[in-house]
Amino acid sequence: MGRVIAPILSCDDESAAWLSRQDRWLEEQPQRLLDALSIRRGMKIADIGAGTGFITVQLAHRVGHRGLVVASDLQPEMLDVLVNRSDMPGNVVPILSTPYDTRLPSNTFDLILLVDVYHEAPRPDLLLQGLRRALKPRGRLALVEYRKEDPRIPINPYHKMSARQATVELQANRFRLVQRYEQLPWQHLLIFVKQ
């Protein structure tokens, strides 16, 4: 749909360290992101491309012990790092996905979150089909992507997406944009629902 698919971030020591870097709290301000998502206790959330669990841990604390967070990743090495974190809450379930199948259960999730991941999906159409199926009827799909529109953001251009491009792709896959949040330092937060 008019863009180059970015390569998937590998699971080596350098990449894992980058995903869990302390500076990320200042650079991306994930607490602001999580506040904007209006997460409630008891929710069921899927964290797609969970990586080392940087966001997963925060989601799990917000949904509480009656909630559930499914941490999905393509790379078993990332999931190994995630499940072996000393601070990983007990309400997190890891799922090893494939590039073409999230392996998420149908009609389950109140929120599906993709943080800096969607732009790497080899077949965005198949990914979105699986996410549609996994969302509850009133569930929300949240994309967080580095802003391509801002050249000052120090991220490889292949790992950025414009809000327009993301919206066009999701609309073509029967999602409707309901909220665009631009108060994060480096990223868009785009929230969609099923059409």
Automatic annotation (TrEMBL):
<protein>
    <recommendedName>
        <fullName>Methyltransferase type 11 domain-containing protein</fullName>
    </recommendedName>
</protein>
<dbReference type="InterPro" id="IPR013216">
    <property type="entry name" value="Methyltransf_11"/>
</dbReference>
<dbReference type="Pfam" id="PF08241">
    <property type="entry name" value="Methyltransf_11"/>
</dbReference>
<dbReference type="GO" id="GO:0008757">
    <property type="term" value="F:S-adenosylmethionine-dependent methyltransferase activity"/>
</dbReference>
<dbReference type="InterPro" id="IPR029063">
    <property type="entry name" value="SAM-dependent_MTases_sf"/>
</dbReference>
<feature type="domain" description="Methyltransferase type 11">
    <location>
        <begin position="47"/>
        <end position="142"/>
    </location>
</feature>
